[in-house]
Design goal:
Layout: E1 6-10, H1 15-26, E2 36-41, H2 44-51, E3 56-59, H3 65-74, E4 79-82, H4 89-106, E5 110-117, E6 131-133, H5 138-145, H6 150-165, E7 167-174, E8 176-178, H7 191-202, E9 206-207, E10 228-232, E11 235-240, E12 243-245, E13 249-252, H8 253-268, E14 280-282, E15 286-287, H9 290-303, E16 313-314, H10 318-325, H11 332-337, E17 341-343, H12 346-349, H13 358-363, H14 365-374
Parallel strand pairs: 1-2, 1-4, 2-3, 4-5, 5-7, 6-17, 7-14, 8-13, 9-16
Antiparallel strand pairs: 10-11, 11-12, 13-15
This protein binds NADP nicotinamide-adenine-dinucleotide phosphate (NAP).
NADP nicotinamide-adenine-dinucleotide phosphate is lined by residues 11, 13-17, 40, 42-43, 61-63, 83-86, 91, 115, 117, 174, 176-177, 186, 189-191, 380-382.
Organism: Clonostachys chloroleuca
Domain NAD-dependent epimerase/dehydratase: 7-203
InterPro entries: Epimerase_deHydtase (IPR001509), NAD(P)-bd_dom_sf (IPR036291), NAD(P)-dependent_oxidoreduct (IPR051783)
């Protein structure tokens, strides 16, 4: 068993961080049930809402190095789950340095679980073509690519700073997340609610011009005829105009929160699991068939009388889509139609078992629509630094 008693979750008012907090609280088995949970949030309203959970709520901005150091030292934090920002290196650096300081004072190990983004490992996100596993040497490849992708800069910077500070580092790469979050504040994700709300506003459902395949699905609507069907074991890939398209990975928020909690559990149990340069965890359960999803959104909104056409139309341009959705134009391809052959290995080696699959996701699209209609939209601050 490890010595860790106090765990801090950042982004506790966010969709993912809020769900991690709720899942940690709900886990009534040792060793997780015995930890003290702290979270960092920014606004008074969020502080009020999260205080009801009976956890330690710290109101601070993660840019404030001194406030973060004080929070970590005063609350004797030895493990941080960082679910606030994958794009902004200084926030993670402040947290890792504070853990480093805590480790120096106590002479004991500290741990940092980061949230990265799977699209950084997709071809549209600048990753080389071909299969990529989380057990590959991803840190070295991120360094070799050497571009200005904010997620790669953050990944590399945090691997290196953790090493320098003697902090054990784990990096969960997060794909498209869906479902209703169990947190106290922001309950919904970015992608699907944005598509639903924009569709209602424009009275038309748009989809991106590019769609891919999901492994195991070969009969899929495509604009062009596939020139070749590749089969590897139970996986099938279509090659169109020489290009291999595979749809992006996805995960239900409950499964993702569970993955973070499994990592926390392993650390608390003192188990030795992949970390540092080898500590990448591709957190996904299945592929997300974009066109099928958008067709189901179109059907669901049409049935409610909210759009004129029961089928989805292609966005006039990628730039138009970025402007309408308020997403960074340089990342719109990766966010809207990322392709890549990411293979998740490490989470499954931990014994993590997601409960959602592609069929269950597609069958739940009506709930996704209803959730976007029920929940008050909360402005996301995720892209502020990029925009
Ligand atoms: N949702 C997805 O589909 C998805 C997919 C891939 C990766 N990710 C990554 O996962 C992470 C969490 O995503 P999410 O969907 O949970 O986002 P979210 O709902 O917007 O939550 C992020 C939270 O972080 C907080 N935060 C941001 N900057 C902060 C700062 N300087 N100080 C203190 N708090 C700060 C925000 O606080 P405020 O409420 O005050 O703004 C917000 O509550 C992000 O890094 C995101 O890039 C998400």
């Amino acid at each position: 068993m490890s010595h860790v008693k106090n765990v801090l979750v950042t982004g506790g008012a966010g969709f993912i961080g809020g769900s991690v907090v709720a899942t940690l609280i709900a886990r009534n088995t040792a060793p997780v049930k015995d930890i003290n949970i702290s979270t960092v949030i920014r606004s008074d309203d969020q502080a009020k809402a999260l205080s009801k959970l009976g956890i330690n709520v710290i109101q601070a901005d993660l840019f404030d190095e001194k406030a973060i150091l004080d929070a970590v030292l005063n609350n004797e934090i030895d493990l941080i789950v960082h679910a606030a920002s994958s794009f902004v290196l200084p926030l993670g650096l402040n947290l890792v340095r504070a853990l480093g300081q805590r480790g120096k004072i106590t002479g004991r190990k500290t741990y940092f679980i980061n949230s990265s983004i799977t699209t950084a490992f997709s071809e549209d996100g600048g990753w080389p073509e071909g299969e990529v596993k989380d057990t590959d040497n991803l840190y070295e490849t991120e360094k070799q690519i050497g571009d200005d992708h904010p997620v790669r800069i953050t990944d590399i910077g945090l691997v290196e700073e953790s090493k320098a500070q003697g902090v054990e580092f784990f990096n969960v790469a997060v794909p498209v997340v869906y479902g209703r979050g169990s947190g106290e504040w922001k309950k919904l994700s970015t992608n699907i609610p944005a598509f639903v709300r924009k569709s209602i506003e424009k009275k038309i459902v748009y989809k991106f011009e590019k769609d891919g395949v999901c492994p195991d699905i070969v009969s899929y609507p495509l604009k062009e005829t596939p020139s070749l069907v590749l089969s590897r074991g139970s996986q099938f890939y279509l090659i169109i105009s020489g290009q291999l398209y595979q749809n992006p990975p996805a995960i239900h928020v409950a499964d993702l929160a569970d993955l973070y909690v499994v990592l926390v559990e392993k650390i608390l149990q003192g188990q030795s699991i992949p970390n540092g340069e080898n500590g990448y965890y591709f957190g996904f359960a299945h592929r997300l068939p974009w066109w099928k999803t958008m067709e189901r959104i179109a059907a669901g909104l049409h049935a409610r009388g909210l759009v004129a056409d029961p089928t989805a139309q292609v966005w006039p341009s990628w730039e138009e889509a970025a402007a309408q959705l308020k997403w960074p134009v340089q990342h719109i391809h990766a966010m809207g139609a990322a392709t890549g052959q990411q293979v998740a290995v490490n989470p499954y080696l931990l014994g993590w078992q997601p409960k959602w699959n592609q069929k269950r996701f597609l069958d739940s699209i009506d709930d996704e629509i209803q959730a976007a209609l029920d929940e008050k939209p909360l402005e996301s601050t995720l892209f502020v630094t990029i925009l």
